[in-house]
Each structure stands twice: as C-alpha cells, then as structure tokens.
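Re: export button greyed out
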Amino acid sequence: MKKVAIFCCLLFSISFSNLQAQVLKFDLQFQGKSLELDKEYILNGNPITISKCKFYISNIQFGHGRKFQAVKKMYHLIDLEKPASLSTPIIGPKGYWVSFLFDLGVDSIRSVSGVYGNDLDPTNGMYWAWQSGYINTKIEGYTPICPARKNKFQFHLGGYAYPNNSLQKVNIESTTLNKKGQYVITIALDKFFESIDLSKEYEIMSPSKRAVALSKTFSSVFQYEK
Amino acid sequence: MKNRRILVGIVFGALVVLSAFNTVKFAKPKYFPEPVYNFTLNPISLDKIELGRKLFYDPILSKDSSISCASCHSPFNAFAHTDHDLSHGIHDSIGTRNAPSLVNLAWQKSFMWDGAINHLDVQALAPISHPGEMADDIKNVAHKLSRHQVYTKAFSNIYTDNKITGERILKVMAQFQLSLVSSNSKYDSVRRRQSSFSNQELHGYALFATHCNTCHVEPLFSSYEFANNGLAIDPTLNDYGRYKVTKKSSDSLLFKIPTLRNLKYSYPYMHDGRFDKLRDVLNHYDHGIVTSETISPILKEGISLSSKQKTDLIAFLLTLNDKEFVFNKKHSFPSIR
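Workaround output, generated via the alternate export path:
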C-alpha cells in the first residue's frame, strides 16, 4: 500500500522531467512455468519443493548495449512469499531499454554502515545476527535426498568482505525492444538446482567460497526477455 | 482566521524548537579522539536514549521474558557480568565467552571479542537471536513491543507514523549504549588538571606507558585492534578468536584488545574470564605468556615485573575506575512509569 502511494507521488513528480515510471517484474520459474511455493516438483527423478526464495536487487541501471544510465539507488527485497514484491516500480530515464545491469545483493558499504529500514530492515530475516552482514539470497526447501533434519536444504548466501564477497553484478540483455515500460526478468530456479547435488550439499549459512560460487550460479539463471 | 494561522505558526515553531532541543550533540571529552560512530545516520536525542534504556533493561526482549541485556551487562559492573566467567543465558545455558563491559562504544570499530559484529547498530541482533542468550528474533520482538502501550506510546512520541520497526528498535538501543561514556575516573581528572597522581600511581603510569600502552592506548585504553596476548588455549572451549571471522591463520588466537577502564567493577578478566584478580593478569604478562605463531612480538619475552612494580601498576590501573559512571542514575534501571 505504502509502496503504491510512494509510486504515485513519484509518478506525479516526474511526469515533467526526463524520467519515466517503469516496472521491473521478476518471474521466478520452475521448469518453464511460474514457480509455486510449497508445490512438489520432480527434478531429475526426485521430488523437490521450494519453501522460500528471497533476494536483494539493487543499483539498477538501464541500458542500450553497453551504455547504461543509473536509476536512483534503491534496495529491493524480492520475496516469492510477497507477490507485490515481485513487481518493482522504478523511476528510470525515458526510453526503451534492451539491457539491465544490477547488483544481486547488498553492497559492502551498506553492509558496514549500521542498520537500515524498509526492505533492508532486519525484521525481514535477511540479516545475519552473529556475524554482521546481509544475506543476499535465501533459498530453502525440501527434498527426500537431502540428509539434513526433515530433509530441509537451506542456502543463505551472503558475505561482503574479501575474499568471500558474494555480491554479483548481473548484466542481461533482451533481443526484443519492449515498449510497454514493463520489463520481465525470468529466473529459472530449476537450472540453479541442476548444478547442485542436494544429497551432498544442502546447507550454507555463512560467507564462504561455496556461497560465492552458488551466488554466481544463481545470478546466471536470470534472463531478460520481452 | 488570520489569528488562528498565526497561532498555528507559533505552536508549530515551538514544536520545532522543542524537538531541536531534544536532539543533543554527542558530548566528546576534549582529550578523546573523534568517535568512530557516524552520528549523522542516527542523530542523538534524549527521547531515543531514554527509550533505548527502557529496552536495554526490559526482559521482553527474550523469548520467555526472563532476561534482559542488563542481566549480563549490569550497570554496577560497568555493564559487564561478574557472577560467572561465562555469561549465563536463557534456560541457563552457558555462553562460551565472558560479557565485556559496555563503555565508550562510540569509539569502537568492531564488536565482540572476535570483531564478528561490524557496527553497534546491529550488535543487539546477536543476543536477541542467539539460542543460548535471548533466543528470540527481532521480528518477534517488534511484534511483542507493538502490543505494549508503554512502547507504542514511546515510539509514537518519536516517530510520527507510530511504526515499531527493527531499524528503530536497534537505533534507539544503540543510542542508549552510545550514551555510556566513561570519562570521570581519577585518570580523567588528572588529564583535566583537576587532581594529580600519587607517586606510586606515577610509577605505575610510567610502567604502563612502557609496557601496555601500545595495545591499551590511552585515553580509551584500547586501540580496539586485535592481538594475541599469550593466553594458553582452553581445550574445553577451543576458541580461536578472530580466526573464526576471517579464517586467516594469521588471526588465530587474536582477540579484541579490551579497554582497561573500570576493571574494579568488570572482573573476571579476558575473553573467557579466566582471571579474577588484576594480580593474576600481571602474573600472566610477567611469566605466564604462552608463545605461538601469532603471539604479539612485544609480548614474546613476557613483561618482567617485580612485585613492587606490579603493585605500582595496579595502583595506576585503579585510577581508571569511574565510580560516577558506574553509579550514574542516568544509565541505571529506568524508573517504572
């Protein structure tokens, strides 16, 4: 509700400037269809359900090829449990954009500067308590091949400090020009899981090499199409 | 109509003045360095300090409402914990480290014995979430507070939209802790030329300057860096300190250098509370140093101190006790309203 109000204000205030209100939509998919939380899928012959998928997007830039224009710096928590969060109103420079550049995660400066509100508020469950830093991406779920308690796998990917800085720069491009001011970014989560053997790797809860590697994998399943 | 507008103007002006009055500048003692904490992101106000204080002393922050921050950080112990070497938490499960005293936090670069916390604002998340300590989490805390009138009122006095968020809870708690400035010890009054050291204290001061000040840098009595001061590892705890955070072997057994202010009140000493008395500490530096790869080079050979020198050094260390701070009503248990 509040987001909508802010959006309307912004719309009003920019209508005479060189900016334009646009919507960036995130479509989390599993096997080609929009992902449903807590639904059982079969992946490589094994049942799997996803119970949580949240991640931070920030520092969005719009572009044509390699030329980018920055948008006002904001941090967006995309949370599959909150459908409204999947559509992010952004105020960007006027034009039709074929490429996007953004950070998947929260940058290191924010990570060392204390507490913030709204999407960055620690009540969102995306802040580590016992060692400072944001969890950039949180993916949890169940599969019988996972040997953990209740067959639960948990990937809490984060870490802002060298050498385990897990923030990823995502640069995606579309082949077609979008004229509706609405951009859809699809995320093929099944592809992410195809790179992990959940019977062996099922829990990451702190900054590490693997957290960086999996963050990279996750960023590689982002796609921008029409 | 016009009168009414003027009246509204006056009332509004008065409110602005009042609220400006309530924001205060952080008082830095003259001879202290500039604080590390960035106050522009969390401007100090008396109302926020007061609300933070209320939260600090309120067991509502723990799952079964049994312990508060003050259970482990008591004002009478310079906000450290003295009953046990390893702080007791919820359901009496014992933590693995000694609760440090909370003073002059505005000058600290990192928090916890291993520096795992990078900012005071986010420190409280650790005890609130640690299963052995307060076993709750900040979302639940925000929810609980929003059901108590005292808190909804206190928050709405400060924030016009009445919302109790994680950010706000943490920022007001940080403000209270930032207000815990200790600068009224005898040492401080000497620095302000209001009194002078005895001969014995002067001898101790000289020894301190030679042997201790590299790490326990005055006037804060810490550089807040990390060092290995030669404590033998406790095999029941296997605590490697800073290594746990950075995973660098050069950080193995390094712990944050603690301040030496208020030692009279903050015993036992060291990250695991292994020493009860200052003499034990000095005996450690004199002949107890265990060398290892990461031992601080200045402590490798130990610090040889005669019995008289130890007595003098202790006399100096005792000038760092700040009774006024410890018994200051402004930080003690808030009166019930």
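Residues 186-321 of chain B form a domain with the Cytochrome Bc1 Complex; Chain D, domain 2 fold (CATH 1.10.760.10). The button fix ships in the next patch.
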